[in-house]
Amino acid sequence: MSKGTLFDKVWDAHTVGILPSGQTQLLIGLHLIHEVTSPQAFAMLRDRGLKVLFPERTIATVDHIVPTDNQARPFADSLAEEMMQALEKSCQEHGITFYNIGSGSQGIVHVIAPELGLTQPGMTIACGDSHTSTHGAFGAIAFGIGTSQVRDVLASQTLALSKLKVRQVEVNGNLRPGVYAKDVILHIIRKLGVKSGVGYAYEFAGTTFEQMSMEERMTVCNMSIEGGARCGYINPDQVTFAYLKGREFAPKGADWDQAIAWWQSIASDADAEYDDVVKFDAADIAPTVTWGITPGQGIGIDEKVPTLEEMPADERAIAAEAYQYMDLQPGQPIQGTKVDVCFIGSCTNGRISDLREAAKVAKGRHVAEGVKAFVVPGSERVKQEAEAEGLHTIFEAAGFEWREPGCSMCLAMNPDKLQGRQLSASSSNRNFKGRQGSASGRTLLMSPAMVVAAAVTGQVTDVRELL
């Protein structure tokens, strides 16, 4: 097993005990909740006459079901309104801090926790959402959990978990212009596969990640789960500390100096032992687009949809399924594929830096005729910052809709849905069948800049031609 890694150090520091099952009872330092997986968990507590053990360690917001066009209450969707009311009532009942719409800090849970300074190195973090791995960008160990586990954390502030192995994923070198963090993680998942991370935590290391901003690192860690890893993290460094300094919940004064010392101590040792190590060269990574129905079915923008003969035998069945569902032919170039809807947002790519890069491509151009394009900020703070910089006027002048914060079309548990066989160019994280709201809708994952390139040309386009 691994030894001397950040994962090992944080796991050991939060171990309460070893259960008869052999699992570790792990203390959870920060519990993030939203309106989808928490109502049932709170109902379970009520059925057992239990209270939230440490309400100060739980933070709530709303994101999945909130509409992004009209957020007036009550919501038009009665089920969404019911879920909102359930969360509002539970937070009030148990004394949980709740960042509701209009608070100035509402947004996608994996966007607001870092921007508030709640997410910090060395933490264990849990949330009833699979993309909780996002928080690993800070050197935290962050898990997505199910509803019954949300109940367990509310009631005991602990989780029963089996310890993971650790794979170091090393990427070195400079990314070429037009290649972004989203391309890096899509490339890694493409090469390693969507199941290779099962049973592992991924430690992302190397000069490529060292050069990334915190927001870029969050994009990478966000999609660890799409490669099968339970969590992904990056060792904290000066980039991490600079991002956190001065944020609302970050340590202050002498506490800050103590925190820095501890954060530096938990980084993986120079002689740390890993269960596996894989290496990539940044120069080999191109703007990447998914062509199929899993995040691992991706190719460089200059490549063609692979043929069955080019794939390992165990991937051919799902590839054949993907050809049929996506209406793509083996050997067909991905570039030039017509798009209907272009979506910028999500916990993967809805931060201010994502919007800035997208606006660079949108400026002075216009969405192609027949294409619906919209931008959904990841939080109220991101929206406010973008508007202060005038990004919204660039998008609106280019023919994009400028929306309110929320998860939006990433998973379409709200009014933002594909219709029929529409094909979406999306900056989100999953391209599963029906993921964006239509049982027959199709999704191509790509970076926000690539989404803009598709929007203004009406087809999948190499963004480097527009830079």
Our Rg estimate from Cα atoms comes to 21 Å
| Secondary-structure-derived class | alpha/beta
Mean pLDDT: 97
How far the N terminus sits from the C terminus, by CA atoms, comes to: 46 Å
Task: Assign an overall shape.
Answer: globular
* CATH architectural designation of the largest domain: 2-Layer Sandwich
Number of helices: 16
CATH superfamily of the largest domain: Aconitase, domain 3
Helical content band:
25-40%
Largest sheet: 5 strands, parallel
Q: Could you please say which CATH topology of the largest domain applies here?
A: Aconitase, domain 3
Question: What would your notes on this structure say?
Answer:
By secondary structure, the chain is an alpha/beta fold. It folds into 3 domains: 6-161, Aconitase, domain 3, CATH 3.30.499; 165-236 and 265-284, Aconitase, Domain 2, CATH 3.40.1060; 291-465, Aconitase, domain 3. The protein is built from 16 helices and 19 strands. Strands 5-4-3-6-7 form a 5-stranded parallel sheet. Strands 17-16-15-18-19 form a 5-stranded parallel sheet, covered by helices on one side.
